[in-house]
Amino acid sequence: MSFKIELPHVGESVTEAMIGKWLKTPGDRVEKYDPLVEVITDKVSMDVPSPATGTLTKIHVEEGETIPMGALIAEMDTEEEANSDGADSTTITQASGSPSASRIGTLVQGANVGPTGGEFVDTSLSTRETIPVTSAGSTTPGSVKRQKGFSPVVTRLATQHDVDLSLIVGTGLGGRVTKKDVLAAVSSDGSGGTLEMASVPSASDEDVIIDPTPIRRIIANHMVKSMSEIPHAWSAIEVDVTGMVEWRAANKVTFESSHGVRLTYLPITLQVVADALNSNPRINSSWSEGKIILKRAINVGVAVATDDGLVVPVVHSAAGTTLADLAGKLDGVVNRARSGSMTLDDVQGGTFTLNNTGALGSVWGGAIINHPQAAILTTEAIVKRPVVISSDGNEAVVVRSMMNICLSFDHRIVDGAEASAFLQTVKSGLEAIHLDSDLN
After folding, report:
1. What CATH fold (topology level) applies to the domain 2-102?
2. pLDDT of residue 49
3. Running DSSP on this structure, what letter comes out for residue 94?
4. Residue 437 has pLDDT above 50, yes or no
5. Residue 402 backbone dihedrals phi, psi, to 5 degrees
């Protein structure tokens, strides 16, 4: 029986994925739950298991290609019965409960893919009003009015071969430039075509050329998507965290011995931020098809730098949680992120992102929003510096521990007043911590 295998959905905000590596070839016999193909998205890199036992007969998608979720990727002859409604095809997600489905490698969430059903359009490449080159190498006057968006596969090929996509007339649906069009243009240009390359920088003999990993390419594409689709705005304030610094210094030894986890500034800040989101719900939202979705759950993603790139594990139900619980959850997801052993649950459902760039020595920065969320907050390095303090009409210059915080926000959803209100709530929460505070 012919069995059609579709690309499984791995998250509500993920609309496409890249085929990293086929682990089986046509003609191979495959047991149910055997690893079949490595799939890479902005959230997860994982081995997808075979949904049935049988023989792999056809592969529809090549390695390195990016396709939408639910697309047909392969076929197999199976020994099992079809699904209950009598259809001759099924999705690979039927096997998602298998042990193999939970074997996840590096997870990446730079900027998420757009709302479910959205199409990736790389707007980083501009088009010019010029006479384009057809895929056969000839010019076609008056053919500039065509679709200006390019798929990730086309974009990558164009970058690899220094092809100006604005000069190619697509043969795909609606004039879309396809992979074959780019390859034909590359072949044509190699035999004396007229592709314009003046705008593409060239490498000298002293330069080092690095071929980005699939994960790095996905991060790059989604960063571009976030910046091109979300109208970013920024607001920053400084916070006096002297009390927080003193409280941590006085309590970290007993906290670690009592709860078995290190006490850093991150879980303290996360507790304050989560409570601030609870009282400023517009910050904990997303934009979808012209509407604002206020998220009831407060699931805070925490950006973590790893050898493979930026990952953002999610701390679920962060509001109203004790400091000990938050420290324990953070310790678990951060360790799994750095060891490449996170689960799908670790990266799904984020409603807001906290980016602790201060750990890297940064004192000010404006982060890119984690699409489709409404905002991201950076907490910068804590620096001791002189500050003017007013008390009872008297002013004095004293040394305090100061930290800058910056909110990047989607200006479709949040205005400056709402962003400032949230920042002031975070500031008040952090500055309320003192040596005698009971944060446990």
Report:
1. OB fold (Dihydrolipoamide Acetyltransferase, E2P) (2.40.50)
2. 86
3. G
4. yes
5. -115, 145
Separation of alpha carbons 36 and 18, rounded Å: 14
- Least confident range from 26-30, 179-183, 206-210: namely 179-183
Do 302 and 356 contact (CB within 8 A), yes or no? Answer: yes
- Whether residue 129 is predicted with pLDDT greater than 50 in this model: the reply is no
Mean pLDDT across the chain, nearest whole number? 78
- How is the chain split into domains, by residue range? 2-102, 114-229, 231-431
Q: Which of 335, 337, 382 is nearest to 356 (CA)?
A: 382
| 174 pLDDT tier (thresholds 50, 70, 90) | low
pLDDT range class, residue 206, cuts 50, 70, 90: confident
Beta pairing class for 35-40 and 45-49: antiparallel
| Cα angle, residue 410 at apex, residues 427 and 117 outer, rounded to 5° | 135
List Cβ neighbours of 239 (8 Å cut-off, separation of 6 or more).
402, 403, 404, 405, 426, 427, 430, 431
Cβ neighbours for 403, distance < 8 A, ≥ 6 positions apart: 238, 239, 241, 358, 379, 380, 381, 382, 383, 430
Tokens of 305: 């730098």
Of the candidates 406, 378, 374, the residue with the CA atom closest to the CA atom of residue 294: 374
**Distance between CA atoms of 230 and 374, rounded to whole angstroms?**
9
Nearest alpha-carbon partner for 311 in 272, 348, 256: 348
For residue 307, indicate whether it is catalytic: no
Given the residues 411, 434, 436, 438, select the one marked as catalytic: 411
Please indicate whether residue 316 is annotated as part of the active site: no
Task: Name the one residue in this structure whose structure tokens are 């009003």.
Answer: 129
Closest CA to 348 of 317, 379, 314, 311: 314
Are both 2-102 and 231-431 of the same fold?
A: no
| Set 88, 345, 415, 434: catalytic member | 415
Superfamily of domain 231-431 in CATH is Chloramphenicol acetyltransferase-like domain (3.30.559.10)
CA-wise closest residue to 429 among 254, 209, 252, 280 = 280
User: What are the distances in angstroms from CA 149 to CA 161, 167, 174?
Assistant: 18, 13, 11
Which amino acid appears at position 203 of this protein?
A
Confidence at residue 72, expressed as pLDDT on a 0 to 100 scale: 92
pLDDT at 98 over 90: no
Q: What's the average model confidence in pLDDT over 124-141?
A: 34
